[in-house]
Design brief:
5 helices, binds MU-OXO-diiron, Ferritin
Length: 171
């Protein structure tokens, strides 16, 4: 059975992952509103990934005999000044999430909760990839100054992203 302090922290993470999903869906809506269908698709896949993260935490808390308590989701930003602005905010957000995951790991270590440490390792590794992916996109956007023919080409590339369940085949 999971300890109270860990249970509370994991419940906060369920909420944070839903908040991330909500944020990326808002960014997808913004991209739709400015006619960037490829970027809108990329953010929609990002939204689906965050939902998968939140349900992974949800299932873990239940699986350890804990009690899931869903809290209100914090409001998200609606408007942006352009594609670069969105990805700058995305990078900032993922850096924040990395901090949250690290904090969870710190608690698991303090509590000698080895099962939670093992569970969290996937998320520690995932955050490295998440930040690297967003940094790459942001660098490319800055190279083309976030406009013109280059932006249209990137938008076309972003259309190709498809959602793959990150936990398919993981027990
Ligand atoms: Fe659930 Fe993008 O971290």
């Amino acid at each position: 059975m999971i300890k109270n302090k860990m249970e509370i922290a994991l419940n906060e993470q369920i909420n944070a992952e839903f908040h991330s999903a909500y944020l990326y869906l808002s960014m997808s809506a913004y991209f739709q509103s400015i006619g960037m269908a490829g970027f809108a698709n990329w953010m929609r896949v990002q939204y689906q990934e965050e939902l998968a993260h939140s349900t992974r935490f949800f299932d873990y808390v239940n699986g350890r005999g804990g009690r899931v308590k869903l809290a209100p989701i914090q409001e998200v930003q609606v408007d942006y000044t352009g594609v670069v602005d969105v990805y700058e905010e995305t990078l900032k957000h993922e850096q924040l999430v990395t901090g949250l995951i690290n904090r969870l790991m710190d608690i698991a270590i303090q509590e000698s909760d080895h099962a939670t440490k093992s569970f969290l390792q996937w998320f520690i590794d995932e955050q490295v990839e998440e930040e690297a992916n967003v940094e790459q996109i942001l660098n490319n956007l800055k190279l083309i100054k976030g406009e013109g023919q280059g932006l249209l080409m990137m938008d076309r590339e972003m259309k190709a992203r498809v959602f793959v369940d990150p936990f398919a085949g993981i027990a």
